[in-house]
Amino acid sequence: MYQPPEQLPEQPSATPPRVLSIAGSDTSGGAGIQADLKTISACGAYALTAITAITAQDPNGVQAVQPVTAEQLRQQIDCALRYAPAAIKLGMLGNATLVQVVCDCLTAQPHIPVIADTVIHASSGAALLDDAGVQLLREHLLPRAQLITPNRQEARTLFGDDDERTLQTWVRQHRVPLLLTGGDSGLGIAGEPRFCTDVLITADNVEHLTAPRIDTANHHGTGCTLSAALASFIAHGFSVVEAVQYARHFVQQALRAGATQHWPGHGPLHHFFAFGQRAVSETAP
Fold first, then answer.
1. Against a cut of 0.85, is the pTM above it?
2. What is the Cα–Cα distance from 167 to 180, expressed in whole angstroms?
């Protein structure tokens, strides 16, 4: 199991905390529910799932999307909630009807922290949420979250702007921290690496979290992995600030480990980098 910079808190029993992922299925296994399953497991939690859509994806991107029905999603969520998840991660929700189902199901669960990955478009440009769904997400679901993780394009779609102070106004209004993901802080000079900056916006602070950009084409599912790791560490009892620190570290390690692998198109992160290293060392002569 992956260990963050500090050890996970000791559990009173062998039962790991449960995290419910409500998201779409990805044929390639690099993003969506499949990435969430791997990430949550690697971060020492147990993954429950509710699938919002079946997508067909190949190295060229999203080829088809088939949403589930409202009743199918409702039944999945209701069943998963009976396992008492300690956190919920939201990914691709597909359309307004399914966003409404999620809103309805979570209304009776105000005590469960929600990490919302605001999936609106695939990196290939394919639409993964309709306009009515975006409106419902913005007005009814995001204000109920404990943390939301839009990239800059998603922030512009949701809030009309990706200016950090403008976003902080929304954060202060709803008391929901926002992690603005991705983006270059500079191109570097004389061969120095570029940097990737996430911005953690709370009611009282705007903090720029910068790390060297990892040069790799294998970054499919980075946003899904980040939000699933955040939900996992929240489920373990860490604060939002601590969860952001540990989740970003996990993603950086998974990107770095996946960078040496060979995939057609944009390959996945290597979610089980720590397990692989341990397995090799334990079986070596």
1. yes
2. 9
DSSP per-residue codes, 234-284? HHTT--HHHHHHHHHHHHHHHHHHHTTS--SSS-B--TTHHHHHHHHHHH-
Q: What percent of the chain clears pLDDT 70, i.e. is strictly above it?
A: 88
Measured over the CA atoms of residue 245, residue 224, residue 78 and residue 130, the dihedral's sign is positive
**Residue where the block lists tokens 């290939």:** 124
Instruction: Give the CA distances from residue 130 to residues 96, 143, 206, 238, in Å, rounded to whole numbers and listed in that order.
Output: 7, 19, 30, 34
**Neighbour tally for 268: CB within 10 Å:** 24
Tens digits of residue pLDDT in 41-70: 999 999 999 999 999 999 888 899 999 999
CA distance 7 to 236: 11
* Structure-block tokens of residue 95: 């359309």
In the chain, % helix, strand, coil (3-state, to 5) comes to 40, 20, 40
Contacts of 178 (CB under 8 A, 6+ apart): 147, 148, 149, 150, 155, 167, 170, 171, 200, 201
Query: Under DSSP, is residue 112 helix (H, G, I), strand (E, B) or coil?
Result: coil
Amino acid at 21: S
Q: Which residue in 179, 173, 132 sits closest to 155, CA to CA?
A: 179
Per residue in 169-211, pLDDT tens?
999 999 999 999 985 444 455 555 578 899 999 999 999 999 9
Q: Residue 279 above 50 pLDDT?
A: no
Per-residue pLDDT band at 280 (split at 50, 70, 90): very low
pLDDT digits (tens, 9 = 90+) for 138-167: 999 999 999 999 999 999 999 999 999 999
Mark out the alpha helices in the chain (DSSP H runs): 32-42, 70-81, 96-107, 131-136, 152-159, 164-174, 222-235, 240-258, 273-283
